[in-house]
């Protein structure tokens, strides 16, 4: 086989792999289309109890840290800012509308070490488990992972979250097993 034929085979294989990746991502997009990216932001501005700059890592199905959800505005990693208020959590990601999670929807606050495509030092991620609204009003349990830029802010954010929401205590989770 000459070099031209080998080159064409490699190009066709690469195009096929890229096409498969594209189709898989589109399928995931359609699968997750009924999941809302948060709740309406309240009209009244509440003072933040704690806030921090973050790297948003991913949102996954509850207790399935390797199953990324492609929820509108939460499908990709991004820099952002999180503010914990009396009424809930506001997640503002670069290039996206702010996402609001009311305190009543927050079900878990924990530390994690890994999730889809990200492994960090022990307890380097903040896991916020919440009930995401869906088109059929049933809701779905999801886990959102944040990496707080300044480690000094991490404890303040976790403390504020556990103060406003009826959640499990901060600590390790099964995602670290």
Automatic annotation (TrEMBL):
Domain PH, chain residue ranges per copy: 42-161
Q: Keyword set for this entry? A: Membrane, Transmembrane, Transmembrane helix
Transmembrane segments annotated in the record for this chain: 6-25
Q: Does the keyword Transmembrane helix apply?
A: yes
Could you tell me what this protein is called? PH domain-containing protein
Q: Which organism is it from?
A: Cryobacterium tepidiphilum
